[in-house]
Amino acid sequence: TRRITVPQIAARKGGEPIVSLTSYHAHTAAIVDKYADFILVGDSLGMVMHGMDSTVGVPLDLMIMHGQAVVRGTQRALVVVDMPFGTYEESPQMAFRNAARIMKETHCGAVKLEGGKRMAETIRYLTERGIPVMAHIGLTPQSSNVMGGFKTQGRDEDSWPLHEEDARVVAQAGAFAVVLEGMVEPLAARITKQISIPTIGIGASAECDGQILVLEDMLGLNPKPPKFVKVYGNLGGQIEAAVKAYAEEVKERSFPEEDHVYR
Ligand code: KIV
Ligand code: NA
């Protein structure tokens, strides 16, 4: 089967909601691949997979390794890989060089980068040169040191015009979709109505054209998930029960059993 394409995602504006999850890992990505329109190899992997306290320290090589794992593990969904902090902000040329590495080494279908108006020139530079870009505005975790933490955006109505401008400008610059993260519902609704590309919400209400969650959060692996996460599974509890049972059986020598032994 052929993968879902960037234009197919863009064409979903205002239509059937776009389904997306993050994945960093071949076996989980293969499951997500059956149901998601696109899979994001998010730089949240620094926190989720590697225990970092923010995404600021995530290296490009790590994004590429996890991007390769997810592309290998999937066949249907579009795979989008996050550009990590420090690999694209300086100039469009620098962004192109690093985005091209991601595309060539992972065979993903698009990259995502954080920032609105300030990244418009870069978004245009990349898309005009063959690299599809998903934008990401609102709460942008790579700027958490400037924002003073992870703060919901748009609580003050005076800030709405700036966020609306960010959304308009990234769409005009050629982004094929835009993630709205951590944003009050009325602002997400206004932006979704105002622009011609799909909005993908995370903590930004059902007014968006699609939704994304961090897989480990919705599976119940994060002991303290953010408020906007609906926890659909209890993987943490299931893993603990399995590990506990294994430990007990090893100690009492009831594992391995007959079926697990070479005779
Ligand atoms: O890194 C990530 O997982 C993301 C999503 C939360 C949108 O950027
Ligand atoms: Na990210």
UniProtKB/TrEMBL annotation:
It is an enzyme of class 2 (transferase). GO terms for biological process: methylation; pantothenate biosynthetic process. Keywords: Cytoplasm, Magnesium, Metal-binding, Methyltransferase, Pantothenate biosynthesis, Transferase. The active site is at E181. InterPro entries: Pantoate_hydroxy_MeTrfase (IPR003700), Pyrv/PenolPyrv_kinase-like_dom (IPR015813), Pyrv_kinase-like_dom_sf (IPR040442). Coiled coil: none annotated. It comes from the Bacteria. GO terms for cellular component: cytoplasm. Pfam families: Pantoate_transf. The keyword Metal-binding applies. One of its GO terms (molecular function) is magnesium ion binding. Pathway: Cofactor biosynthesis; (R)-pantothenate biosynthesis; (R)-pantoate from 3-methyl-2-oxobutanoate: step 1/2. Its cofactor is Mg(2+). 3-methyl-2-oxobutanoate binds at D43, S44, D82, K112. Binds 1 Mg(2+) ion per subunit. It is found in: Cytoplasm. It catalyses: (6R)-5,10-methylene-5,6,7,8-tetrahydrofolate + 3-methyl-2-oxobutanoate + H2O = 2-dehydropantoate + (6S)-5,6,7,8-tetrahydrofolate. Mg(2+) binds at D43, D82, E114. Its EC number is 2.1.2.11. HAMAP family: PanB. Belongs to the PanB family. Catalyzes the reversible reaction in which hydroxymethyl group from 5,10-methylenetetrahydrofolate is transferred onto alpha-ketoisovalerate to form ketopantoate. Homodecamer; pentamer of dimers. This is 3-methyl-2-oxobutanoate hydroxymethyltransferase. The gene is panB.
